[in-house]
Request: fold
Amino acid sequence: TAQVAGLTTAQVAGLASTQIRAMETADLSALSTAQIGALTSAQLAALTSTQAAGLTTASLGALATAQIGGLGTGVLASLSTSQLTALTSAAVTALTTAQMAAFGTAQIAAFTTGQVAAMETADLAALSSTQAAAFTTAQLGAMSSSQINALFA
Reply:
């Protein structure tokens, strides 16, 4: 863990996907936000759902929108609600339809109103009726009319 934390951002960026996959959750927790920011979307795609527990809220909040596409649906589905709410509104906008569909009802209910307001209509339209029912009154109040129409179309 201390060794991983000692890597430079350039060294982290140079790790192979197999090396990323070999990291333990404690190793990921030890990475700084700068080190996490150096990961490519391909490296992030190598993460497993078990490893997702090692992503700190600070590191998730620091992810660039270009990195978001690399997060697998299994990783996203395994995020805790506190991890999920650490994503920026821009990161939520960058989520794909498949990524949005991976979230469980508890995760959907945990999104902040700012995150909900940033959701794309196509992503909302692709959610199941069970997922749509998980939105809270406050979250629905944060949606535009086009978002509401997409969600309940």
Summary: The CA atoms of residues 117 and 144 lie 7 Å apart. The chain has 18 helices and no strands. The radius of gyration is 16 Å. The chain has a mean pLDDT of 95.
